[in-house]
Design goal:
The complex is a heterodimer of chains A (112) and B (112). Chain A is mostly beta strands. Helix content of chain A is 0%, strand content 50%. Chain A has no helices and 11 strands. In chain A, strands 2, 4, 5, 6, 9, 10 and 11 form a 7-stranded mixed β-sheet that branches. In chain A, strands 1-3-8-7 form a 4-stranded antiparallel β-sheet, with no helix packed on it. In chain B, strands 2, 4, 5, 9, 10 and 11 form a 6-stranded mixed β-sheet that branches. Chain B has a 5-stranded antiparallel β-sheet with strand order 1-3-8-7-6, with no helix packed on it. Classes of the chains: A mainly beta (112), B mainly beta (112). Chains A and B meet through strand 4, strand 5 and strand 10 of A and strand 4, strand 5, strand 9 and strand 10 of B.
């Protein structure tokens, strides 16, 4: 199994641009989530999904959209990038909602 | 808002010594999880302890949970240089709250 994969690894955007961060897992995990990590802070939950077709907001959802059309994929869309969205983004998945999360390697995003 | 708070924020120890870090949280939990993050990498799950458990072991790791004090501790015995990393506690809320909330982490440096 490849586990949780994320693309791209690095991205630089200009303010106002949009983009999609990709996340995929090949473990047939129902639960997937997106976090952002800022310097000196823990991870903050952006959005999560308990299964295909079901998504919900986390702690910091503003400026981000998600969809879950398949079990494997959970893309995160930035609608109009802002400098405050400069961060490292991690995708995670787990077999169940209460289980341990497996994390992807992260996407480092810089918004100028 | 972040549920767990780790203490201390940073810890420097000699190889072979034990490292202890603590996590306090505010509301009732389903389980508490500990993760490790090496510099520039994704998070790796270490141990999950359920709310009805008091202690768990995994290799050189020992986790305790005191739900009456809303606190947990992670002990790493006989530390090695490879244990240098940031350690995060994360709490899963009770009931149907499946959001995993992370603390800001403890940075551990093991000196050779």
């Amino acid at each position: 199994n490849a586990g949780v994969t994320q693309t791209p690894k690095f991205q630089v955007l200009k303010t106002g641009q949009s983009m999609t961060l990709q996340c995929a897992q090949d473990m047939n995990h129902e639960y997937m989530s997106w976090y952002r990590q800022d310097p000196g802070m823990g991870l903050r939950l952006i959005h999560y999904s308990v299964g295909a077709g079901i998504t919900d907001q986390g702690e910091v959802p503003n400026g981000y959209n998600v969809s879950r059309s398949t079990t494997e994929d959970f893309p995160l869309r930035l609608l109009s990038a802002a400098p405050s969205q400069t961060s490292v983004y991690f995708c995670a998945s787990s077999l169940s909602e209460s289980g341990a999360r497996g994390f992807g390697p992260g996407t480092r995003l810089t918004v100028l | 808002s972040q549920q767990g708070e780790e203490d201390p924020q940073a810890l420097s120890i000699q190889e072979g010594e034990n490292a202890t870090m603590n996590c306090s949280y505010k509301t009732s939990i389903n389980n508490l999880q500990w993760y490790r993050q090496n510099s520039g990498r994704g998070l790796v799950h270490l141990i999950l302890i359920r709310s009805n458990e008091r202690e768990k072991h995994s290799g050189r790791l020992r986790v305790t949970l005191d739900t009456s004090k809303k606190s947990s501790s992670l002990l790493i015995t006989a530390s090695r240089a490879a244990d240098t990393a940031s350690y995060f506690c994360a709490t899963l809320g009770g009931g149907n709250d499946y959001k995993l909330s992370f603390g800001a982490g403890t940075t551990v440096t093991v000196r050779a």
